[in-house]
């Protein structure tokens, strides 16, 4: 089969979070399973672009509403990611450093999708499957079905994977002419609560919809930022496939960001060396359990609860632990996390920003990873942490529920709690400290974590079965 993935992110080209990791890894593992994979994404101005060789494969123009724009498709020449990588350049819209967060994101991602469909319609052969990811690409299943100019593509099966239903790409109806001349009778497919809702349109138009864990698939029917009724109605075409991790990139034996490598046989010494380096850098005490948080500082991740949960833990659990936070997001959370540094100096530190290298060193050097998420469709952090022998302390939600078994349950290896609240987080920290202080048990749990397999093989096979079910 030939699968064309369309996404706003793909590691290592451009990544803001887990979407990038998944689109960087899934095509690679599908290729290893014997299929042809191509990834197409916007040509942002990232380091990867300047450090690699490219050839132009297509140039053309299209309309976004009344605006005529030129687009160029370039291809990486060496196939270094293990699949064909294409970038779409649109001057004035995609030629930016950041992936998201601009006032004209609607124009940027709509024109990107138009360029992809326009390019596809000029191909001599077709992919067998068109796999789109999240709302930035979710208008494509609509476009190939209902835009007159592209309707000859309508028999290509489309799969939409929802990595996060919180963001839906809402557009005002005044922008409906952005979508190339489409069958007006189908306005109801675009509409949700008097707005154009690209994610809703994708759910209705795609042949199959998947999301990234079984629990999140179920939770979306109860809570998905307004789309609950749609998920209930469309449940017959939806499936949950848990994400895997790229074990070539995330491997403590070979990780290029680490200076002290380790395997299960050198676990204790290896983690200690990483922890000491991290603690020296951030003025923390390596003899105490080290809790880390890595992620976007937003409500979904319950990052707003961190300052109080950390303060309460240090205060009520007698400073028996240290904390280190890495992340960026809402300004008031960033500020609070920075301000706490002087008060809890020696017990707590934070690094505000995005730092891929530091994140790897934190997974390796930490004893515990905190993830109190309010919403977590899958979550990759806990999977990386476990691969590095770091015990996850998580809220039971979405993919965290599906991948972490509490140590109080048979076969358990993590710490789980029910509510995204300061009290539950602090209690989780308390249980973790108790575990840490029972050194024998703690070591046994860490060994067990490193033996777990969260690789892509099983999930890649599930995607393959799903694709096959759509072919004639
Ligand atoms: P989400 O995609 O919702 O942000 P995931 O758990 O799926 O959450 O994936 C987050 C990914 O982004 C992980 O690879 C994590 O290590 C990385 N990440 C998040 N914030 C940062 C940061 N500030 N610096 C470096 N890496 C980060
Ligand atoms: C989203 C989700 C996260 C998931 C990631 C990759 O960003 O928030 O839970 O792991 O996508 O699927």
From TrEMBL:
Its EC number is 2.4.1.21. This is Glycogen synthase. The keyword Transferase applies. NCBIfam families: glgA. It is an enzyme of class 2 (transferase). ADP-alpha-D-glucose binds at residue 15. Pfam families: Glyco_transf_5 (PF08323), Glycos_transf_1 (PF00534). Synthesizes alpha-1,4-glucan chains using ADP-glucose. The keyword Iron does not apply. InterPro entries: Glyco_trans_1 (IPR001296), GS/SS (IPR011835), Starch_synth_cat_dom (IPR013534). Pathway: Glycan biosynthesis; glycogen biosynthesis. SUPFAM superfamilies: UDP-Glycosyltransferase/glycogen phosphorylase. Belongs to the glycosyltransferase 1 family. Bacterial/plant glycogen synthase subfamily. Residues 279-439 form the Glycosyl transferase family domain. PANTHER family: ALPHA AMYLASE DOMAIN-CONTAINING PROTEIN (PTHR45825:SF11), GRANULE-BOUND STARCH SYNTHASE 1, CHLOROPLASTIC/AMYLOPLASTIC (PTHR45825). Residues 3-231 form the Starch synthase catalytic domain. Keywords: Glycogen biosynthesis, Glycosyltransferase, Transferase. It catalyses: [(1->4)-alpha-D-glucosyl](n) + ADP-alpha-D-glucose = [(1->4)-alpha-D-glucosyl](n+1) + ADP + H(+).
């Amino acid at each position: 089969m030939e699968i064309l993935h369309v996404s706003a992110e793909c590691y290592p080209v451009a990544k803001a979070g887990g979407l990038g990791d998944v689109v960087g890894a899934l095509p690679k593992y599908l290729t290893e399973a014997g299929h042809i994979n191509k990834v197409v994404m916007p040509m942002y101005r990232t380091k990867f672009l300047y450090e690699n060789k490219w050839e132009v494969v297509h140039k053309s123009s299209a309309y976004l509403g009344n605006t005529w724009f030129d687009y160029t498709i370039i291809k990486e020449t060496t196939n270094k990611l293990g699949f064909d990588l294409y970038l779409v350049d649109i001057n004035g819209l995609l030629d930016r450093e950041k992936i998201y967060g601009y006032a004209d994101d609607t124009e940027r991602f709509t024109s990107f999708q138009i360029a992809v469909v326009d390019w596809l319609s000029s191909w001599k052969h077709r992919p067998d499957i068109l796999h789109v990811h999240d709302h930035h690409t979710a208008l494509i299943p609509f476009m190939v079905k209902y835009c007159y100019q592209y309707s000859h593509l309508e028999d290509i099966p489309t799969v939409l994977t929802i990595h996060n239903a919180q963001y839906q790409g809402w557009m005002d109806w005044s922008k409906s002419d952005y979508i190339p001349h489409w069958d007006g009778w189908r306005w109801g497919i675009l509409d949700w609560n008097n707005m154009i809702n690209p994610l809703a349109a994708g759910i209705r138009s795609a042949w199959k919809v998947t999301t990234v864990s079984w629990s999140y698939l179920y939770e979306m029917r109860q809570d998905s930022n307004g789309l609950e009724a749609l998920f209930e109605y469309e449940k017959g075409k939806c499936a949950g496939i848990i994400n895997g991790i790229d074990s070539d990139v995330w491997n403590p034996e070979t990780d290029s960001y680490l200076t002290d490598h380790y395997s299960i046989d050198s676990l204790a010494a290896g983690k200690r060396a990483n922890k000491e380096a991290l603690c020296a850098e951030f003025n923390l005490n390596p003899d105490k359990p080290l809790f880390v948080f890595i992620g976007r500082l937003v409500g979904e991740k319950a990052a707003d609860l961190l300052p109080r949960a950390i303060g309460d833990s240090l205060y009520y659990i007698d400073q028996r632990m240290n904390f280190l936070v890495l992340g960026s997001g809402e300004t008031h959370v960033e500020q609070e996390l920075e301000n706490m540094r002087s008060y809890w100096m020696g017990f707590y530190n934070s690094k505000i920003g995005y730092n891929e290298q530091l994140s790897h060193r934190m997974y390796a050097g930490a004893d515990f990873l905190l993830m109190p998420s309010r919403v977590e469709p899958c979550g990759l952090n806990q999977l990386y942490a476990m691969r590095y022998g770091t015990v996850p302390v998580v809220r039971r939600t979405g993919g965290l529920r599906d991948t972490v078994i509490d140590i109080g349950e048979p076969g358990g290896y993590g710490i789980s709690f029910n509510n995204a609240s300061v009290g539950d987080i602090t209690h989780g920290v308390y249980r973790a400290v108790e575990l840490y202080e029972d050194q024998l048990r703690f070591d046994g749990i860490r060994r067990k974590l490193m033996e777990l397999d969260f690789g892509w093989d099983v999930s890649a096979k599930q995607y393959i079965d799903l694709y096959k079910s759509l072919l004639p």
